[in-house]
Design goal:
alpha+beta, Metal Binding Protein, Guanine Nucleotide Exchange Factor, Chain A, 3-stranded antiparallel beta sheet, 16% helix, Met_Sox_Rdtase_MsrB_dom, peptide-methionine (R)-S-oxide reductase, oxidoreductase, Mss4-like_sf
């Protein structure tokens, strides 16, 4: 189980090695993704709160990266955080997410990216539920929910 100290360590000293890498040109990403997905995943924008696909969805399944289909989160770690975006308490695997410090918009945050294709997912905060205390605040545009058997 990851904790806030682990997230900070990865952001400062280096992330775990991903299981594989997916590299595409910006033109290839633009052809693959919808305009909204491209803005979020490749240009680090944020989708509008509460008006996104998975904010209020709690169906069983797994959440994969739109860009590379890597498994990121399980619905068992999803919870209602009243943040406006889907919130998770743990990633599926320690090497699934890449962390970096983000000081954009005059804030100090930790950015969460797909460790396989480098897509911007959202941010992680230390105000989540116990046991981990983590809140992964993730843009729906970067996720696809799939049935557990499909992964």
């Amino acid at each position: 189980m990851l904790r806030w100290s682990d997230v900070l360590k990865y952001a400062k000293y280096g992330n775990p090695e991903p299981p594989r890498r997916v590299n595409k040109t910006e033109a290839e990403w633009q052809a693959l993704l919808t305009p909204a997905q491209f803005r979020v995943m490749r240009q680090q924008e944020t989708e509008p709160p509460y008006r996104n696909a998975y904010c209020r969805s709690y169906e069983p399944g797994r959440y994969v990266c739109v860009g590379c289909s890597s498994l990121l989160f399980d619905s068992a770690s999803k919870y209602h955080a009243i943040s406006g975006w889907p919130s998770f308490s743990q990633p599926h695997a320690k090497n699934g997410i890449r962390y970096s410090f983000d000081e954009a918009h005059h804030m100090q945050r930790v950015e969460a990216r797909c460790n396989v294709c480098d897509a911007h997912l959202g941010h992680v905060f230390p105000d989540g539920p116990e046991l981990s205390g983590l809140r992964y605040c993730i843009n729906s545009e970067s996720l696809n929910r799939v049935e557990a058997e499909q992964q």
